Amino acid sequence: MQVEQNKVDIIVVTYNAAQWVSYFAPAFTTLPEGWRVVVVDNASQDNTLALLREQYPHFCLIASPTNLGFGGANNLALRKALQNNCDYVFLLNQDAQISVEDIQKIIAVQKNNPEYQVVSPVHLNGEKTFFDKGYASYVQQGEAGHIAFDTLMNRPLQQVYSVPFVNAAAWLLTSTCLRTVGGFDPLFFHYGEDSNYLDRVAHCQYKIGIVPSAFACHNREFRTSERENSLSLVGQYLAMVARTPENTLRYGVKGSIRLLLSCVKHLLRGNIPAATARWDAFCIFLRQLRVPRAYRAMEIQLQEEPPRNK
Questions:
Q1: 29 and 113 belong to one structural domain
Q2: What is the C-alpha separation between 76 and 60, in angstroms, rounded?
Q3: Going by DSSP bridges, is the β-strand pair 8-14/35-42 parallel, antiparallel, or unpaired?
Q4: Closest Cα partner for 251 from 227, 272, 233?
Q5: Are 121 and 210 a contacting pair, CB within 8 Å?
């Protein structure tokens, strides 16, 4: 499949990812001409950067002095991609993996279906035994619900199926999408940013799709922490704020009360880790509500300069 002439940045945001380097990185030991891997590290406290420098010196590393969250860290690399005149970027979670060949399949499908500006593979779990746990729930929306039925009925699969949502663990974005829709909204720290981004993609009348011939693995089925649950709750309320900014006060109060009550409940039960996670989430929620920018705008520009490479 001849798509090597495209300039492609594969972007991975890491945070304390030493255990995941051997999971996501080996697939990119060799890359087609014009491709590169850009890793943005969110101030990891482990040896993530040391491992990457030693084992993958051809990766482009950006070391953020602070944890910018998923969207903020991706925005640093998205700016670099535009400066590098990339045709595509591929966003990949640190706990996910995909082959270069599968990314090439997705690019080929997008070229044949230019109305799709965000395209994703099928998301499998870490053991490759079933769909990823989150993907399995929302893949039934839109045309993607026909993938399993078409397979069962031995019908020819479409090149791409339209969906309203697919999470950002493995996304192909076009440069057109980046220049029109922009980057991730800094209102979101972690969770909810992908939903908000796809809302804006749909607002620009672009389509979001899943390519049934390409596969990625998302190794998270056995990992659920109080912190992740708390941040997911924060993301839900921030998404409500972003969709209806006139109700910022309403959802700000509602989200704050829910997080605080949950914190007190866990504290009374003696579950200190859970109470701490809820308190931290509450503080993040308040901080994000005060983000000094006009987040009501549909387009989040990627114009600020990124920090120096480390």
A1: yes
A2: 12
A3: parallel
A4: 233
A5: yes
Task: Please compute, for residue 85, the number of CA atoms within 13 A of its CA located in the half-sphere on the CB side.
Answer: 3
pLDDT tens readout for residues 216-225: 999 987 766 6
Q: Which residue has the higher pLDDT, 47 or 281?
A: 47
Picking from 117, 92, 97, 94, the residue whose alpha carbon sits closest to that of residue 169 is: 92
Total count of domains within the chain:
2
pLDDT at position 188, please?
A: 80
**Alpha carbon separation from 115 to 118, 201, 209 (Å, rounded):** 9, 11, 10
Q: Is the Cα dihedral 109, 124, 137, 223 positive or negative?
A: negative
Q: Say if residue 231 is in the same domain as residue 100.
A: no
Residue 306 lies in a domain: no
298 part of a folded domain: no
SS3 for 13?
Answer: strand
SS3 assignment, position 280: helix
- The verdict on 200 and 238 lying in the same domain is no
Query: What pLDDT, in 10s, does the model give residues 249-292?
Result: 787 888 888 888 888 988 888 888 888 888 887 887 787 776 54
d(CA 302, CA 291): 16
Q: Could you tell me the two tokens for 232?
A: 């997911």
